[in-house]
């Protein structure tokens, strides 16, 4: 088993890591895309794009990639904003779509519009 850390200050506080590689799979923790360097109000699509970039980096460290994703779960603060993310999802998963679910949920920070969790072949 391999644990992958992103360096997020929340990992030691909450006792989790960005991803775990085990049993031929890479399991990526729920990841959000708020950019502290970005604009104060970021769209759901912008957050989705940054989130997938962070997930892709974790998967690369695991020896995998978004093209090997078999399952993805999207958690949306407001389900009405999910449609704005579709073009971003097409960019990243269009040729290799995983099984997917979307859930409306209250996220840990109200500024977070989307959280994404991925399971991929390692």
Automatic annotation (TrEMBL):
Domain of life of the native organism: Bacteria
SUPFAM superfamilies: YjgF-like
Transmembrane segments: none
PANTHER family named in the record: BLR7761 PROTEIN, YJGH FAMILY PROTEIN
Protein name: RidA family protein
